[in-house]
Amino acid sequence: MTTAVPPFLAVLRIGRWFRQLPSPFAEALVNLGQVRTLQPGEALFLRNGPPCGLYAVLSGSIRIGGHGGSAQATRETLLAVLGPPAWFGEISVFDNAPRTHDAHAHDATTVLQVPHGELQAWLDRHPHHWRDLGLLMADKMRVAFVSLEEQTALTGAQRLARRLLHMARDYSLGMGDHATRRVLAITQEELAHMLGLTRQTTNQLLHDLRERAVVRVSRGEIEILDLDALQAVGR
């Protein structure tokens, strides 16, 4: 009897990390995974919450962020907005420690959850596949180091252009290096939070790009119209 192919498998195979996994590990993630549907704003997990597994975005998007600053001046932080087919949550799989940030559905979202206990038990039986999971975290570390350098070395316009490019390429974790998502589900305020800029500065930078027909800005979306021009701004 032929085993039915899960409908979400085509989405996962778009992603570079999953596509390059050895078949036994990829099949284990699919077989252990459970599809969950989230409403806009619904929490998937919260900072300091217990490990709950590895996740992949199948549709919609997930906001990774939290709150920082003093008790008297708490401000929202937004690290990333992840769309299909991004994988996330691997840190707690490795160290079995609480979650480092909040994860909320940005809009109506479907994710694949590979439960923590089942995944760790499978990896304990197949320890050579820990390295494959480590490659996912290594990719994230590369992006994080680049972002830290950009915060101090680049202008606001360069940082904004590069962040849009990162998102269009799924932070280098999703589609291939040359594939892009041109319509990004993010508001100007959220982009300001991600860049550590004021909303006024971010709006002005986006206005300049819009005037040059590099991007189109609408409610809740930024569309990249001229990828080459955006890359030039980020250099």
Main attributes?
11 strands; Arc Repressor Mutant, subunit A; Jelly Rolls; 10 helices; 235 residues; alpha+beta; 2 domains; four-stranded antiparallel beta sheet
Task: Give the topology.
Elements: H1 9-12, H2 16-19, H3 23-32, E1 34-38, E2 43-45, E3 54-59, E4 62-68, E5 75-82, E6 87-88, H4 90-95, E7 102-105, E8 109-114, H5 116-125, H6 130-153, H7 156-168, E9 183-184, H8 188-195, H9 199-211, E10 215-218, E11 221-224, H10 227-234
Antiparallel strand pairs: 1-8, 2-7, 3-6, 3-8, 4-5, 4-7, 9-11, 10-11
Helix pairs in contact: 7-10, 8-9
Pick out the low-confidence regions: 171-179
What separation lies between the terminal Cα atoms? 55 Å
* Rg for CA atoms: 18 Å
Number of helices: 10
Query: What's the CATH first level of the largest domain?
Result: Mainly Beta
| Residue-averaged pLDDT | 87
Helix content: 40-55%
Order of helices and strands: HHHEEEEEEHEEHHHEHHEEH
Task: Write the CATH homologous superfamily of the largest domain.
Answer: Jelly Rolls
**What is the correct CATH architecture of the largest domain?**
Sandwich
In terms of DSSP E residues, the strand content is 15-25%
Give the structural class: alpha+beta
What does this structure look like?
This protein is an alpha+beta fold and 235 residues long. The protein has two domains: 1-153, Jelly Rolls; 155-235, Winged helix-like DNA-binding domain superfamily/Winged helix DNA-binding domain (Arc Repressor Mutant, subunit A), CATH 1.10.10. The chain is 43% helix and 22% strand. The strands form three sheets. The protein has a four-stranded antiparallel sheet with strand order 1-8-3-6. The protein has a four-stranded antiparallel sheet with strand order 2-7-4-5. Strands 9-11-10 form a three-stranded antiparallel sheet. Helix 7 packs across helix 10 and helix 8 (188-195) packs across helix 9. The chain starts with 8 loop residues before the first helix and ends with a helix.
